[in-house]
Design brief:
The chain is α/β, with parallel strands linked by helices. The protein has 5 helices and 5 strands, in the order βααβαβαββα. A 5-stranded parallel beta sheet has the order 2-1-3-4-5, sandwiched between helices. α4 links the parallel β3 and β4. α2 runs parallel beside α5. The radius of gyration is 14 Å and the shape is globular.
Length: 150
């Protein structure tokens, strides 16, 4: 019987540029730094985590679909696809894996086009505006989802 909660952390377009892309908005930590902090926190929480990043929408859709029956929770920073991708929204709804939307910046305090999330209606929650710490908050929420389902 599976006892360790399995979490998939998906990062979308341009997250591979963390640390150099608009550091005044996204911070100076690299994606490797963020993933290292995620792995450390996951270990402390007794969670198993797989991290993946792609700039390709279809690859992200594939990963979400493949998570069905394999992952307990998805943490998704869909980047700009948050605001445009019905395909990601449909993949989340279709996979049926609880998904937490994560953003480094507060998308609601930025440009108007960033205020609407196409994926929020099919996610269990949204964490934004706390920089990379948002991923750690999302991990805590994922652990709580496990406890609520026992």
């Amino acid at each position: 019987m599976k006892t360790t909660k399995s979490i998939l952390v998906l990062n979308g377009p341009n997250l591979n540029l963390l640390g150099t892309r608009e550091p005044e908005v996204y911070g100076r930590e690299t994606l490797a730094d963020v993933e290292s902090a995620i792995q450390k926190k996951a270990k402390d929480l007794g969670l198993a985590v797989d991290c993946f990043q792609s700039n390709q929408e279809g690859i992200l859709v594939d990963k979400i679909q493949q998570a069905k029956g394999k992952q307990d929770v998805i943490l998704l920073n869909a980047g700009a696809y948050t605001h445009t991708s019905i395909a990601l929204r449909d993949a989340i709804a279709g996979a049926g894996v609880p998904t937490i939307e994560v953003h480094l910046s507060n998308i609601h305090a930025r440009e108007e086009f960033r205020h609407h999330s196409m994926i929020a209606p099919v996610c269990v929650g949204q964490i934004c505006g706390f920089g990379s710490h948002g991923y750690l908050l999302a991990l805590e929420a994922a652990a709580q989802l496990k406890n609520n389902r026992k």
